[in-house]
Amino acid sequence: MIQKIYNILYELYGPQGWWPLSSSGGYHPNNYLLPDKKKDIFEICIGAILTQNTNWSNVEKALFNLRKRKLMNAKKILEVDDEILAMAIRPAGYFNQKAKKIKIFANFFIQLQNKNKIPTRKELLSLWGIGPETADSILLYAYKIPTFVIDSYTKRILEALHIINGDLKLSYDEIKEIFESNLPNDYILFQEYHALIVQHAKKHYSKKPFGKNCPLLPVIGNGDLSNTN
DNA sequence: TTCCAGGCAATAC
DNA sequence: GTATTGCATGGA
Q1: CA–CA separation, A205 vs A212, rounded Å?
Q2: Shortest CA–C1' contact from A171: which nucleotide?
Q3: What angle do CA A214, A165, A188 make, to 5 degrees?
């Protein structure tokens, strides 16, 4: 079932090429070696924080401002005044909170560089401002670690398809496990699948009634709560 | 004008 | 332990 949904979405939309990177002019379908530079890895991490409950077009404005001010760099982020940073990322909303989150992450990022290591999920979750979705996005898209990203769209679609029951209020990790236990452990597949879910949800699950004209519903939505295969 | 976006932490119950 | 609230901009 989980694999089948992926096949249908891929057939519908094709490769998505997440994460969008400014250095490659946005999305980069079929180039799964990216990011390959420290600056791009950092940009993905910052973008993952900025996009928390925020439209990507607003995040792009904030990222543009950061590049314009030569702040797309962990050391510079730590040096700049909180208020300057907050104003630069203002279009992304929640700018005071996010400025604080970005500073905390920049400090962590520099420590990673010094130790020449990649972050663990546990380390990321211990940072103020990094929750499960942001941690998984960073691991999957910046570091190519095969960990599945769950967002509100994912839950919305699974509920519409009756693969999960909204009343059961499954945890983030439980929903994540539904995907990971039914798919090969492949970061490219995980990157594309999450991106396809977002693409599909923007089209059919953004405004109510959710799932209107969703082509998955006639194929998958059979009301069987137990079958996640 | 209202609603929503690729959440998270703090607070209330 | 679970539910609610604050955080904020910009486009539809």
Answers
A1: 7
A2: C2
A3: 60
Taking the C-alpha atoms of residue A87 and residue A6, their distance in angstroms, rounded to an integer, is: 39
Q: Which residues contact A40 (CB under 8 A, 6 or more apart)?
A: A21, A23, A34
Among A85, A87, A116, A113, which residue's Cα sits nearest to residue A101?
A: A85
Checking each nucleotide's C1' against the CA of A206, the nearest proves to be B4
The Cα–Cα gap between A108 and A227 comes to 41
- Please report, for chain A, how many H helices and E strands are present, in that order: 12, 0
Q: Which residues make Cβ contacts (< 8 Å) with residue A185, sequence separation at least 6?
A: A146
Measure A97 CA to B12 C1' (Å).
21
> In Å, what is the separation between the CA of A51 and the C1' of B4?
14
Return the closest-CA partner of residue A195 out of A10, A43, A7, A3.
A10
pLDDT digits 0-9 by tens, A158-205:
999 999 998 999 999 999 999 999 999 999 999 999 999 999 999 999
CA A191/CA A146 separation, integer angstroms = 8
Return the H-helix or E-strand segment holding A220: helix A217-220
Whether pTM > 0.85 for this model: the answer is yes
Q: How far is CA A168 from the centre of its chain?
A: 24
Give tens-digit pLDDT for A49-78.
999 999 999 999 999 999 999 999 999 999
